[in-house]
């Protein structure tokens, strides 16, 4: 016990304190960064932001809000969001913040209140998600985070039906810890992790069909080609008729005079 007290006093002398767990500081906006005032409603319309750029938008309860940000190898990103409610809510609501990589794979959070529940009397709720460090390469079957464009989705997953559509204010910030390219892993990703958005070309005019060559007419043009199913069907019919006549002649009883 005396040893612990002495160690605590020594740390206090140099400006350090003992804590049960190391808590990372919340991300702060970059100086001079312009505030983003809009959000997308899907992956394709996600609003592009950068680390340290604050976001403040007005929306309605029940909307799915999307943002996208670039991630480089060696960085660890932390997303914080605050949803402010109006007065007059009828019950509690549960909110969630999800993060996806360029291939729309959901990335796990290592820290933060990813799915908190706000009571009916609460005026706001704070969400958070700390991603794993972005790796420069990974096996194809793994879900490790790789460099590329990441997507943030903020939505409500449970709320009373009368509260659907109420106006809300959303404040969001993405923080990045670590310099891009700094990584202890060997290897390097050849290209950013992003889907192919140029799979084909867009046709601006209706394509012209190719002309079909007409066969020259002749006296035997109507006859079927040798070896076609029509010839074999005809031959089979003739043989069946001959076999029927022969069979009838052999089995017919002779007439008595």
Overview of this structure, please?
The protein is elongated, with a radius of gyration of 37 Å. The protein is 14% helix and 25% strand. It is an alpha+beta fold and 257 residues long. The N and C termini lie far apart (139 Å).
The helix/strand order is HEEEEEEEEEEH
The whole-angstrom Rg is 37 Å
State the secondary-structure class: alpha+beta
* pLDDT < 50 runs, ≥5 residues: 1-23
Assess the beta-strand content as a share of residues: 25-35%
Could you state the oligomeric state of the chains shown?
single chain
- Ends apart, CA distance between termini: 139 Å
Count the DSSP helices.
2
Mean pLDDT: 80
Total beta strands: 10
Choose one word for the global shape: elongated
The percent of residues in helical segments reads 10-25%
The largest sheet is: 6 strands, mixed
What is this entry, summarized?
The protein has helices spanning about 1-15, 230-250, and strands at about 45-50, 55-60, 65-70, 75-85, 95-100, 105, 115-120, 125-130, 150-160, 165-175. The chain has about 260 residues and is α+β, with helices and mostly antiparallel strands.
